[in-house]
Amino acid sequence: MGEIRFQNTLSGRVEPFVPLTPGVARIYSCGPTVYDFAHIGNFRTFVFQDVLRRFLAMEGFRIQQVMNLTDVDDRIIQNAAAAGVGIREYTENYVKAFLEDMGALGLERPEKIVRATDHIEQMVALVERLRDRTYTYASDGSIYYRIAKFPAYGKLSKIDVSGMQAGARVETDRYEKEDVRDFALWKAPKPGEHFWETRIGPGRPGWHLECSAMAMHYLGETLDIHTGGIDLAFPHHENEIAQSEAATGKPFVHYWLHGEHLLVDGEKMSKSLGNFYTLRDLFARGHKPSSIRYLLASVPYRRQLNFTMDGLQQAASSVERLRNFAARLRAEKLPEGTTPGFAERALNAETEFLAGLGDDLNTAQALAAVFDLVRDANSAMDRSEFRSGDAPAVLSALDRFDRIFAVLKDRDAERLLALGYGTSEEISRQEVEHLVAERQAARKRRDFTAADQVRQKLLDRGILLEDTRDGGVRWKRK
Ligand code: AMP
Ligand code: ZN
């Protein structure tokens, strides 16, 4: 086990990772809000969390990772009410889609994936604990957290609470940055909306409460690592600290790891800006799961990553280069024996790879070590200086690489097919409909160039479109 260091948002420093229990890593990762499909910005954070767990496992840690599914919040309740279905029914499809998407991207399943709505009892108990310690007050049927009673508030996000107005409250879970307010732990029911009848009154949990209650329920009152995207540091994680530490009097989390955003044209990819792609959008355009995974993993999580189609193409060629090399290594008839120094060269690459990851998951450094090795091995092969005895050390380095990046073994076709996307020339109905909808949307916003491009793309794949008089569209295979 080499040294592992993480940039800890709480201390603001890079620190050696020392778990509470030797050999065990207890991790809580904020999961998706299941009110829609996750976009690839969300998946950048989930890929970072996956790289983290894979690396710690490779370093010999037993991983206990819990990820939540936020299956109750303001948007879910509103959308479900608008659709006239229960929240469980409403979220079911998105939970399913999320698990499928995880599979497509080769994300390992956390030991536990838990739903907020299955843990109302733990949330109620946490509110009671806070109430007993006088951290709460009631107002209009809701229960709020009194931030003024928790002097350490702001220690994670370094937010200044001095300008806070005592008693200023906010109901909504996701509010603007730098606006410190007492937040709702428990929200009064609204007419026609879903609520639970509980010991602390009727209502529903606030988002922050969900994560504190579930994290401590499964992982104990102090955990090693808590992860999420950087936008969650304030207020979500700050509020989690306030709730958990006020209730237990113990530190809640030792290492806070926050992933930087995936950007589009310099702005955060987000649902509200409309500048997002889901995985399925990209699959429908013919991109492979491995390219997306590679792209998201290749930039160290603490750096912003600007998403472009060019970048995605480059990621695809990097994966291709590695796959070609692995195939060459298997197929090439190598001369017997060993080349002096080559096994050592490969071993160094492996050490570099691990050192990169150990340095706050510096995936760029780790990848550079692998690509240098591949370049050297390729040119040694060209010169017939690569011998059969050199192969095992190189294969071992590749194996290490793939235990983290998980793109070498080509499972793209099978993963796409599992989601209903064909990779063969025969385009699936689902893909056609997706593209047709994309073209309709382009026409609606009068972007006829984009609409024509989609029509051409479909034509290339054997699909004829016929616009109907009523503005609709029919399609058939050529
Ligand atoms: P949500 O479903 O909004 O709760 O978000 C799920 C996860 O995705 C959280 O950890 C967010 O911080 C993260 N996230 C949201 N947008 C982005 C983005 N553009 N880039 C990276 N991570 C993001
Ligand atoms: Zn959370």
Short structural description:
This protein is α/β, with parallel strands linked by helices. It is built from 15 helices and 18 strands. Zinc ion is lined by residues 30, 211, 236.
Mean pLDDT: 94
Shape: flat
Strand content: 15-25%
Low-confidence stretches: none
Largest sheet: 6 strands, mixed
| Alpha-carbon distance between the two ends | 59 Å
Report on this structure.
- By secondary structure, the chain is an alpha/beta fold.
- Helix content is 45%, strand content 17%.
- The chain has helices at residues 40-58, 74-83, 87-104, 120-132, 207-219, 233-248, 279-284, 289-298, 309-331, 342-358, 363-382, 391-405, 412-418, 429-444, 448-460; strands at 5-8, 13-16, 24-29, 62-69, 112-115, 136-139, 142-145, 169-170, 182-187, 196-198, 201-205, 223-229, 253-259, 262-264, 267-268, 305-306, 463-467, 473-477.
- A hairpin with a 2-residue loop joins β10 and β11 (201-205).
- α10 packs antiparallel against α11.
- The protein is flat.
- Adenosine monophosphate is lined by residues 30, 32-33, 41-42, 44-45, 70, 228-229, 231-232, 259, 261-262, 268-270.
- Zinc ion binds next to loops.
